[in-house]
Amino acid sequence: MSSPAQNPVAVIGASGSLGFGLAIRLARAGMPIAIGSRDSDRAAETAARAAELIPGGEFSAHDNAGAAGAADTVILSVPFRNQSETLHNLRDAWRPGTLLIDATVPLAAAIGGKATRMVGVWQGSAAQQAAEMAGVGVRVVSALHTVSAASLTDLDHPLQQDVLVCGDARADKRDAARLIERIEGLRCVDCGRLEMARTTEALTALLIGVNARYKVHAGIRLAGLDDSRITWD
């Protein structure tokens, strides 16, 4: 893998709580972050806010296309209602072989419903829709749906959570896992092909209900799965 100093990670949707939490956690781990937004002024505001929290972090602000074009790895963390439009606008912005980590969840809240309900996606899942729309040559992996955004943004909160990763190519899942696991306390677990994202995405709605009921920011940890059993090569 190339040096992180030469290849920033783009976070599209970093003004949202999950995207912002990922941006600052990755920056604290030493990754340069390219923050993308539909509004470049909003991206600049988000980058400035992140720099206040991570004084030694490296943040740059872009519109979405600029962020995607600046990075070999892109994390897409936008509301479901914005996913298709965002991907449509990025079709000509990707670098060859871009790794797209899709964290989109098709919650009913995107269309005025409850956050504890899902909406149907013709392709089967938001990640499969992303794979269809991103275009040839973009490597799509689904991940990060069960990680609490509130926990990520609270830098004093220790993370002891599993990240459920789905994708059709093992090498792509490996690359995504190596990046995500730079965040202390996150462990990636291979959950199979991209089609399994329809299950992992739905866990977001489940956790929203659990967390609201118990007033916590719980994530998922798979009991009985020893670290030594998880390999990516």
Blueprint (SSEs and pairs):
Layout lengths: L8 E4 L4 H12 L4 E5 L2 H14 L5 E5 H6 L3 E4 L3 H10 L9 E4 L23 H9 L4 E4 L6 H5 L7 E7 L2 H11 L5 E5 L6 H18 L19
Parallel strand pairs: 1-2, 1-4, 2-3, 4-5, 5-6, 7-8
Antiparallel strand pairs: 6-7
Helix pairs in contact: 4-5
With helices defined by DSSP (H or I, 4 residues minimum), what is the helix count?
8
Count all strands and give the number.
8
Reported CATH architecture: 3-Layer(aba) Sandwich
Structural class by sheet pairing and helices: alpha/beta
Mean pLDDT, all residues: 94
**What's the CATH topology name?**
Rossmann fold
User: CATH homologous superfamily name?
Assistant: NAD(P)-binding Rossmann-like Domain
Helix fraction?
A: 25-40%
Radius of gyration: 16 Å
Notes on the structure:
- With 233 residues, the protein is α/β, with parallel strands linked by helices.
- The protein has one domain: Rossmann fold.
- The protein has eight helices and eight strands.
- It starts with 8 loop residues before the first strand and ends in a 19-residue tail after the last helix.
- The N terminus is likely disordered.
